[in-house]
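Take our chain:
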Amino acid sequence: MTVRSILHVDMDAFYASVEQRDNPELRGKPLVVGGTGNRGVVAAASYESRRYGVRSAMPMAEARRRCPELLSVRPRMAHYKTVSGQIFEVFREFTPLVEGLSLDEAFLDVTASLKLFGSGERIARDVKERIKQRTALTASVGVAENKLVAKIASDLDKPDGLVVVTADNSRQVLDPLPVSVIPGIGRETLSRLHAIDVRTVGDLRTADDARLEPIFGRYTARTRARAAGIDDRPVEPARGEKSISAEETYDVDLSDPRDMERELLRLTERASRRMRKAGLAAGTVQVKIREADFTTYTRQKSLTPPGNGTDAIYQIACDLLMTWLADHPGARLRLLGVGGSKLSPAEQRDLFADVPTVAKPVDATVDAIRERFGTTSVGRAATLGRKDPERLE
């Protein structure tokens, strides 16, 4: 049986590192990328800010409380995508088996490349060096025989780290780690494991069924296998997008349903435009709703046939939101989101249906204008009344 060589490459504080690279005045200072108002959230945190306990997905107000001298910049997603393209070009110079997880993270199966480029460790060093030469950014890499262990390893020596885990040193590396490094173990499960004195990966690997089955049930054997570093999942280079969405956190809570409808339309335009640009159609429309107290809800409904037309997606999204509001009168919203999942290649369908699911000619015209002159150059009258700066999209 061929022993696989899998790399997990994770760029170090990617968005923040790009901003510090491009602006020398930000280097060496605590920095976050995200919404600049107190109601926003941190999309990425530099290592200087992490010393204060600042982390991604943290509310901006909490980040500033922890680090009063914190600097913040708005995200430049188009720019990050360009840099990401340079990084993925490096990956594909070593193997076509590249499974992208995000703009700054990927698995590489280099098993068939070992004779040409050397060991997995050698390839990992070359990948890191080429990325640094071309982008002036650092990456941390884990090398192992499978995806699970490679991903765990890449996080053990950040930033700019390289950790190699083999069959010979697997238990030595994995057993002392906190059990929370195993995927699928969340806060509630972690608390239950601590209650039975299972705190490390080694504890989980050696615990008997009588202790684990009340927690994991029929997944007990699979969970123990993960703790033993067993994972036979292949690297899948053609993952494709699972969903496309747009969401926004508001500096002032939305309380008027008319404002909510207007924002919902604005978000629908952004999400559907991304679908059309990708040549995809959604089979399910989703709405994300977060109240002022951070309670979050999601609602979804099928779109048949799948589509990417703004009107069709908005009609369903609006119905979902209004139905939710009927059950939550007087709700104040700090976040709204609209998205599509169950994506498939877009097909041309009946443009003369009552509510065609594919884009109308006007959608294509608006897309072309925005592509050339920017997202704020043209819009529907119903969305007027609020400035719409470039957002995370």
About this structure: The chain has 15 helices and twelve strands. The chain has three domains: 7-145, 172-227, 243-383. The first strand starts at residue 6 and ends at 11. Residues 349-357, 372-378, 387-393 have pLDDT under 50 and may be disordered.
